[in-house]
Amino acid sequence: MILLGSTGSIGLNTLEICRRFQIPVEALVAGNNLELLQEQIDEFQPGIVAIADPARIPEIRHPRVYGGEEGILKLLEESASDLVVNALVGFAGLAPTLKAQELGRRLALANKESLVIAGAFLERERIVPIDSEHFGLWYLMNGRPFRRLVITASGGAFRDRELSEIPTATFAEALRHPNWSMGNKITIDSATMVNKLFELLEARWLFGTPAVDAVIERRSIVHALVEFADGSTTAHLAGVDMKLPIATALECPVEEPILPPVDLLEIGPIAFEAIDPERYPLWELRRILLERPRLGVVLNAANEAAMAPFRRGESDFGTMTRRILETFRAFEEREPATLGEALELDSKVRKHCGEF
Amino acid sequence: MILLGSTGSIGLNTLEICRRFQIPVEALVAGNNLELLQEQIDEFQPGIVAIADPARIPEIRHPRVYGGEEGILKLLEESASDLVVNALVGFAGLAPTLKAQELGRRLALANKESLVIAGAFLERERIVPIDSEHFGLWYLMNGRPFRRLVITASGGAFRDRELSEIPTATFAEALRHPNWSMGNKITIDSATMVNKLFELLEARWLFGTPAVDAVIERRSIVHALVEFADGSTTAHLAGVDMKLPIATALECPVEEPILPPVDLLEIGPIAFEAIDPERYPLWELRRILLERPRLGVVLNAANEAAMAPFRRGESDFGTMTRRILETFRAFEEREPATLGEALELDSKVRKHCGEF
After folding, report:
1. φ and ψ at residue B80, rounded to 5 degrees
2. A36 Cβ neighbours under 8 A, 6+ residues apart
3. pTM of the model
4. C-alpha angle B317/B319/B320, rounded to 5°?
5. In chain A, is it the N or the C terminus that has fewer CB atoms within a 10 Å radius of its CB?
6. What is d(CA A129, CA B216) in angstroms, rounded to the nearest whole number?
7. DSSP string of A59-117?
8. DSSP 3-state of B88
9. CA distance A285 to chain B (A)
10. Which residues are within 8 A (CB) of B316 and not within 5 positions of it... i.e. 6 or more apart?
11. Nearest Cα to Cα of residue B200 among B87, B278, B258, B280
12. Beta strand pairing status for B146-153 and B106-109?
């Protein structure tokens, strides 16, 4: 198995599964947490390693370490494992996804942006999502005809904040996720609902349908629901833990307990709420995105570009949201026809967004 | 299709499905609502008919009407359809179930008592349950390894009554089901939790496992849950309407909407509660029943025998419950080894219960 992004939360969970089921790790890729990467190298003895910054290669005790984006692509070329777990964050995950597909590898994809940006140009049959929501949908579908797929959202950091206070909120405030701790980017994407827009697009590509929607479920116990053609609805409930989708992507034995089951008598009431477009103004983009899913590249680029100044404290939450929305609107007629056009559009959107 | 019990709520729903999908009805069996039966005969033109009381045969305008239990068995013998929908109530449903199996027919079984009394002696592969809970379990299982099946209970008429007032409650009070209107017997069985004990036994026989439990879900939106080996839990949600299990048992096209889906944003909070043995003293029998499921015959006989005086106003709710419990305890060592023994035990239990 090849693991891209081994020191993040998905990476750690993946290695826990590898440890438990004795899955050999051929290659590890990490960003800047080199101390943790070294521990992982010592334990899992991968044949090849790559890190984000080529300058820091000498810090790693391993005979074969590559650096930078090219280093990751080289690592993919020179490794043999059929399965690539891509848990890189943001746009940086796209090139390795494309390379893995070019090499005919299977992808376990935690990098949502790959599908959001380039879903139309990927071989979706060779992709398994590592995501509670899509895992839940897959678990429920079972080949029955359905009318609608529904994923749930926690509501993010501002789900209960006074509406008037949200626009002036800071980066630190947007990081206070009510349910769990994740990476910074995805936590901000939760507060804006961009994460859920991404997941609608993922579902669109993975399951080949625009009939996808989301609702808020505050406890994050139900992750996905499927409304079947006959009138049945089924729901997937599980603890918030990525080991379940990871173990499935890694084809671990399904009769093994990966997580303890939720305790039905302890979880308390479960309720579904609409996602209010007043609180989450970007949510209004869901219709056009599902109609023109190739515009995912625009949303992603606008989101990454507008988040940078917010992260640095140079803009507030409302400004970031407004920039994403206005940028998207400026490009919403420009659906890319090819991967090349999509990448070109990505640059243009970032440039446009940077000009605010 | 052959329909036993055409004028009850399951029967009416079955005929609605037959009407919609143009399923021919070869034979109809009804109890005492002969006016409604006549309308059904006029509409569906069955080749054979049977009614409970042989003396009333002349009241029916049809060339081939049989009467009494033997009449039903004769109707089964003389008909040709592969599928028998058995929606008769109580012990009376058993003989037709046995006859249908003897004739090699497929059974769509709404008569729970058949499985409760004789589950060990039936060919379970030829039986499809017509029951929201078991339909839900079947819908969810999909061949994955599971650790526990969970069905839900509404809690019945006394779920919110002061504990001290329950023992003196009357038949009329026990009929006030909080969620819906069903036949009298099943409504009383809901208040005592006997209905849920029956359903545990049904699941035990249908799915071949003692790992079955129940929880209270007051809104009756979730009907069943499956806890899978990997730690996933899935739930089946649907409107309270038997047309969904009936349409499936009748092998109607699954891409047709049988019911409207539940509206996730309108259903309100869903919560699961434990079944409190103080409120439902018969619930303590679940362990021994799942351990020795052939004792279902004892529970059913005690229940039918103790319910008769309660129905006539000769005993109160507490007395009925106590008689069922004490009778069961008196016979709990006597697991029947054969169908003959089970039927013999049935008579003994009824006699014992009648002697209070």
Report:
1. -120, -15
2. A7, A30
3. 0.93
4. 65
5. C
6. 35
7. GS-SS-EEEHHHHHHHHHHH---SEEEE---GGGGHHHHHHHHHTT-EEEE--HHHHHH
8. coil
9. 20
10. B167, B168, B169, B170, B310
11. B280
12. unpaired
Interface test with B, best of A148, A227, A234 (most B CBs within 10 A): A234
Among B152, B220, B234, B240, the residue to mutate for chain A (most A Cβ within 10 A): B234
State whether A231 and B144 contact (CB < 8 Å).
Answer: no
Residue B253 CB-density burial (10 A; 0-12 exposed, 13-18 middle, 19+ buried): exposed
Distance CA B7, CA B31 (A): 8
Pick from A327, A319, A275, A352: which is nearest to A174 by CA? A319
356 residues of chain B, pLDDT tens digit each: 999 999 999 999 999 999 999 999 999 999 999 999 999 999 999 999 999 999 999 999 999 999 999 999 999 999 999 999 999 988 889 999 999 999 999 999 999 999 999 999 999 999 999 999 999 999 999 999 999 999 999 999 999 999 999 999 999 999 987 776 777 888 999 999 999 999 999 999 999 999 999 999 999 999 999 999 999 999 999 998 899 999 999 988 778 889 999 999 999 999 999 999 999 999 999 999 999 999 999 999 999 999 999 999 999 999 999 999 999 999 999 999 999 999 999 999 999 988 77
Could you tell me if B65 and B47 are in contact, meaning their C-beta atoms sit under 8 angstroms apart?
A: no
Q: Looking at CA atoms only, how far is residue B94 from chain A in angstroms? A: 30
Q: What strands lie across the sheet with A233-237, from one edge to the other?
A: A212-216, A146-153, A222-228, A233-237, B233-237, B222-228, B146-153, B212-216
Contacting B with CB below 8 Å, chain A residues are 139-140, 142, 144-145, 147-148, 150, 215, 225, 227-239, 244, 247-248, 254-262, 264-265, 267-274
**In the A/B pair of chains, how many CB contacts fall below 8 A?**
131
Q: Give the distance, in angstroms, between the CA of residue A306 and the centroid of all CA atoms in the same chain.
A: 18
Q: Which of A46, A321, A47, A38 is nearest to A192 (CA)?
A: A321
CB contact under 8 A, B238 and A231: yes
